[in-house]
Known about the structure:
Elements: E1 5-13, H1 17-28, E2 33-36, E3 50-54, H2 55-64, E4 75-77, E5 79-84, E6 87-92, E7 102-106, H3 107-120, E8 124-127, E9 132-137, E10 142-146, E11 151-159, H4 166-171, E12 175-191, E13 198-204, E14 207-214, E15 218-225, H5 227-234, H6 238-248, E16 256-258, E17 263-272, E18 276-277, E19 280-282, E20 288-289, H7 297-317, H8 325-353, H9 358-373, H10 375-386
Parallel strand pairs: 1-2, 1-11, 2-8, 5-13, 11-19
Antiparallel strand pairs: 3-7, 4-7, 5-6, 9-10, 10-11, 12-15, 12-16, 12-17, 13-14, 14-15, 17-20, 18-19
Helix pairs in contact: 1-2, 1-3, 1-7, 2-7, 7-8
Bound molecules: flavin-adenine dinucleotide.
Amino acid sequence: MHKDSCQTDILIIGGGIAGLALAAILGRAGIAVTLVDNAPPSDIKPSGRTVALMLGSINIIKASGAWSACEDHAAALEIMRIRDNKIDIEFDSAEIGQEEFGYNVPNSILRSALYEQVKSLPSVSLHTPRTLKNYLTENNRIVAELDDGTNIFARLLVGADGRNSRVREIAGIKSHEIKYDQQAITCIVNHSHSHNNTSTEFHFPAGPLALVPLPGNQSSIVWVETPERAQEILSLKESDFINLLREKTEDLLGGMTLETKPESWPLSSVRARGMTAPRTALIAEAAHVMSPITAQGLNLSLRDVAVLAEIIADALRLGLDPGAQTLLKKYESRRRLDVTGHVFGVDGMNRIVSNDNPLLQKIRQSGFQTLSRITPLKKFAMRAGLAPVTGSRLAGGEPL
Ligand SMILES: Cc1cc2nc3c(=O)[nH]c(=O)nc-3n(C[C@H](O)[C@H](O)[C@H](O)COP(=O)(O)OP(=O)(O)OC[C@H]3O[C@@H](n4cnc5c(N)ncnc54)[C@H](O)[C@@H]3O)c2cc1C
């Protein structure tokens, strides 16, 4: 073996929320994991980005051991409200006998909590800040080369390295990207009125504007605009930014101040043509990126994490090779429908919602109204949103 080399069962490239969650879940089961990230996770900075996670995703975060450190910073999402051209459609979790649909939590809190978990696990070794340069597949293992010359030998390599995944590129997995003429402005605001644990999404032709509850009188904002308009809005002084925000949100939350500086993110949809290659599995944004319009991106990613963790743990319990082709096929087939359905569904939804065509607007509104008036249909939609069919033990709250 090379002087600077190490051996592991599972090598994860990428220490975003998805990569860290997988490392924590596997590490808690005593599985040998090495995680490489090109930015030191200890540098995680607070930002205005939050994630709305449904209950299945919360179960997966609980399995990682990180939820208790997030709880005090997360707000329950009890009512989801859509306001489309003065028409309101409300989904209340109480209607399906649930206290809440999920929780909204700041990205930086969740990522730091996962990082602390991973750091405390003896079977997980961290290489940060280190970049994956290349990797080769041999008969029964991969050999990965990092930027400092370290070689890592592993039975399975997991690409959790985000939308511009180097793992996807080296593995030769093609992807299809649609760049939207949209940017999302995000920030956290303090406000004078209570949000009542209600998340509200306003629909406008350029894209939606969502107010998502945080603990106390704080909410996170996801405000989608054209790139040109987003830049104009970002250059406004604070009082003008707040006035515009209050006007667009019909003063729902009353007086506001900025808790974090507004930032913007270009939006696109990416779908990898496959989620596996020899001894390689892609998870999360390395495999799929979606518009934040339905707040599904990380929820979908955490289901990749759960299913892959279960397949790996089951294989190792039976003394099987976790990088074997049969197991990778199983992963791909268990994830295909959920991933493809969501990537196409969210893309379609983005086109229908971010549109000022009067006919499309009418169809959209009557669709929402039908959904909200027919109780069984509405309950079915709410339950399907809470628990998409994945067959995952972890998402269902069972142990690994
Ligand atoms: C405005 C906005 C709002 C959103 N809101 C929601 C929401 O409410 N609910 C929801 O479910 N989702 C939401 N999402 C989606 C969610 O934020 C993302 O899916 C998630 O943060 C991506 O996490 P990740 O771990 O897949 O990728 P990343 O966070 O991109 O992590 C990838 C990591 O890999 C590292 N890396 C990259 N290349 C290499 C390399 N060669 N070597 C080593 N390391 C490497 C990077 O440094 C990075 O740390 C939202 C997205 C946006 C843009």
